[in-house]
Specification:
Organism: Paeniroseomonas aquatica
Pfam family, one: MFS_1
Order of helices and strands: HHHHHHHHHHHHHHHHHHEEHH
Structural class: mainly alpha
Distance between the termini: 36 Å
InterPro entries: EmrB-like, MFS, MFS_dom, MFS_trans_sf
Mean pLDDT: 77
Helix content: over 70%
Protein name: MDR family MFS transporter
Low-confidence stretches: 454-470
Number of helices: 20
Main location: membrane
C-alpha cells in the first residue's frame, strides 16, 4: 500500500507475527497444565491425550488448505477470519465446563493455527525483495521457535500461581492485536475470476490419516502394539495415506501439489523440516518431563530451564537471517544441524545431579543451531518455486515440519518409556547376592536403619523425612529393598530419556546429506 510508504513490509511482518506467536505458543503452553486439567474434569490419560493429539492433527491437516483459502478469499480475509476462529476457540477452552468442550476448543485452535502459520510465512516472503528474504525469514523464525521455548515457562507460571484456564486466555491480547492490524495492513485478494474447487476428498483422507496415526502412536504403549485397536489404527493410517497420495496425483485441483517434491532443493528441505520439527517439539516435550520426574523440578522451574535459550534466540535469529542472504542455504543448515546434534549429545549425558545452568546452556546451544536452520530452510525451499506455487510450497513445508513434530514427539515419548522399561528389567535381573554393589548398598542401608533405630512414625524409613522408632530385622530389610527398587526405577527412567536425546542427535546428523540437495537448482522449463 503506497500510503504506508517503505515501512509497509514491516507493518505486514508485525501483523503476521501476531498470529504466528499466538498459535505456536498455544501448541506448547497447554502441556504443563495437563495434570491440573485432568484433575478438574476427572479425565483419564486416554482422554487427556486427545487434548494434544486433537490439536496436532487439526493443525497439521489444515496447513495444506492455506493456499486454497488465500487464492479464494485473499490474505486479509483469510488471516482475519482464521484468527477470529482462534480467538473464539481460546475463549471456549478457558471457559470450558466439560471435557468434550475443551477437546473441541483444542481442535478448533489447531485448525486455525494450521492456516495462520504458513500464511504468515508466505506473506512475509512476498512483501520482501529476494535479497532481503533471508532476513525476513529470520524475523519470522523468532516466533516459530521462541514461542515453544517460552511456552512451558509461561504455562508453568500460570498454573502454579493462578489457574490452568489462564493458559488459554494468555494468547487473546496478541490475537486481538493481530485482528485489528490485519484490517489495516494485510493485502486483499490478488487473483480475479472464479474460485478453484476445494479438494474435499483429499482433505478427508488426510484428516483420517492424521487422526488414526497419532491415535495409534499415542495408545500403542498403553494398550500394546499388537492389540487389535492399535493395529487397526495403523492399518487405516496406511490405507488412507496411500489413498491420499494417489488422489492428489490424480485430481486436477490437488490440496498438495506433489510436483513440488520433484525439485531436489524442495525435497531436501522437506526432509530437513521433518527432522527439525521432531527435534524442536520432541526436545521441548522431553526436557520438562525429565526435569520434573527425574530431578524433581516444579512446573515453573521446568519451564525456566528453557528461558535462557528463548532469550538467546531473539539475538541469534536476526543475525542468522542476515547470514542467510549472504551464505548458501546448505552451509547454514549443516552448521545448525551439527550444533543441535551436539546439544542433544550433551543432553544424552544427563543425570540426577546435572546442574540447572549446565542444562540451560546445553539447551541454548541447540536453539542457536535451530536459529541457523530456520531462515535458510524457509528461504532456500521457497526460492526455487515460481510465484504461483509459493502458497502451496509454504503450506507443504509447514505441513511436513509439523508432521515431523507430531510423529517425532510421540515416537520419542514411546521410545524413552520402552527403553526405560528395558533398563528396569535389566537392572532388576542383576540384583542378587553375586552383585557386590547391590550387597554393599543393602548393607549400608540396613546399618543406617539399625543405627537410627528403625523407621518413622508414618511408616517411612529414616532418611525419608521423619524421626525413627524401632523395627524388626525383616521390616528393615523390606524398607531397604523398597528404597533399592525406587532407586533402580529412577535410574532406568533416566537412561530411557538419555536414549531419547541420543536418538535426536543421530537424526540431526542423518539429515545433513538431504540438506546438501538444496544446492541443486531446478532446470529451466523447456
Amino acid at each position: 500500500m503506497k500510503r504506508w510508504g517503505p515501512n509497509y513490509r514491516w507493518y505486514v511482518t508485525i501483523t503476521a507475527m501476531m498470529g504466528t506467536i499466538s498459535t505456536v505458543l498455544s501448541s506448547t503452553i497447554v502441556n504443563v497444565a495437563l495434570p491440573d486439567i485432568m484433575g478438574t474434569f476427572g479425565m483419564g490419560q486416554d482422554k487427556a491425550q486427545l487434548i494434544s493429539t486433537g490439536f496436532l492433527a487439526a493443525m497439521t491437516g489444515t496447513m495444506l488448505i492455506n493456499a486454497w483459502l488465500v487464492d479464494s478469499f485473499g490474505q486479509r480475509a483469510t488471516f482475519s477470519g482464521t484468527i477470529a476462529v482462534f480467538i473464539v476457540a481460546s475463549a471456549m477452552g478457558g471457559l470450558a465446563p466439560s471435557e468434550p468442550i475443551l477437546i473441541l476448543a483444542r481442535v478448533l485452535q489447531g485448525g486455525a493455527a494450521g492456516v495462520l502459520q504458513p500464511l504468515a510465512m508466505v506473506t512475509i516472503f512476498q512483501v520482501f525483495p529476494p535479497e532481503r528474504r533471508g532476513s525476513a525469514m529470520g524475523i519470522y523464525g523468532i516466533g516459530v521457535v521462541l514461542a515453544p521455548a517460552l511456552g512451558p515457562t509461561i504455562g508453568g507460571l500460570m498454573v502454579d500461581n493462578f489457574n490452568w484456564r489462564f493458559v488459554f486466555f494468555l494468547v487473546l491480547p496478541t490475537c486481538v492485536a493481530g485482528l485489528f492490524l490485519s484490517a489495516l495492513f494485510m493485502p486483499r485478494r490478488a487473483a480475479s475470476g472464479p474460485r478453484k474447487p476445494f479438494d474435499w476428498i483429499g482433505f478427508a483422507l488426510l484428516s483420517v490419516f492424521l487422526v488414526v496415526l497419532l491415535n495409534g502412536l499415542s495408545n500403542g504403549q498403553r494398550h500394546g502394539w499388537r492389540s487389535h485397536m492399535v493395529l487397526l489404527n495403523f492399518t487405516l493410517a496406511a490405507v488412507s495415506g496411500l489413498a491420499f497420495v494417489a488422489w492428489e496425483t490424480w485430481t486436477a485441483a490437488p490440496m498438495l501439489n506433489l510436483a513440488l517434491f520433484r525439485l531436489p532443493s524442495f525435497s531436501g528441505a522437506s526432509i530437513v523440516a521433518i527432522v527439525f520439527g521432531a527435534g524442536i517439539f520432541g526436545s521441548t516435550y522431553l526436557v520438562p518431563i525429565f526435569v520434573q520426574t527425574i530431578q524433581g523440578y516444579t512446573a515453573t522451574r521446568s519451564g525456566l530451564v528453557l528461558m535462557p535459550a528463548g532469550l538467546i534466540l531473539t539475538i541469534a535469529f536476526p543475525i542468522a537471517g542476515r547470514l542467510t542472504d549472504k551464505l548458501p542455504a546448505d552451509v547454514m543448515i549443516t552448521a545448525g544441524l551439527l550444533l543441535f546434534a551436539w546439544s542433544s549429545l550433551l543432553m544424552a549425558g544427563l543425570d540426577t545431579n546435572t546442574p540447572f545452568w549446565s542444562l540451560a546452556v546445553w539447551i541454548a546451544l541447540g536453539r542457536v543451531g535451530l536459529s541457523l536452520i530456520m531462515p535458510s530452510l524457509n528461504a532456500g525451499a521457497l526460492r526455487a518455486l515460481p510465484p504461483q506455487l509459493l502458497g502451496q510450497g509454504s503450506g507443504a513445508l509447514n505441513f511436513v515440519r509439523q508432521l515431523g513434530g507430531a510423529i517425532g514427539t510421540n515416537l520419542l515419548a514411546v521410545m524413552s518409556e520402552r527403553r526405560g522399561q528395558l533398563y528396569a528389567h535389566a537392572f532388576a535381573a542383576s540384583q542378587d547376592t553375586a552383585n557386590p554393589a547391590t550387597v554393599d548398598l543393602l548393607r549400608q542401608l540396613l546399618s543406617y536403619l539399625l543405627a537410627e533405630g528403625g523407621v518413622a512414625e508414618g511408616g517411612v524409613a529414616p532418611g525419608f523425612g521423619a524421626e525413627s522408632i524401632g523395627l524388626a530385622e525383616g521390616q528393615r530389610l523390606g524398607y531397604a529393598l523398597d528404597y533399592l527398587g525406587r532407586m533402580l526405577a529412577a535410574q532406568a527412567a533416566m537412561m530411557g530419556y538419555r536414549d531419547g536425546f541420543l536418538l535426536v542427535a543421530i537424526a540431526f546428523v542423518v539429515a545433513i546429506p538431504p540438506a546438501w540437495l538444496m544446492r541443486l537448482r531446478p532446470r529451466p522449463a523447456g
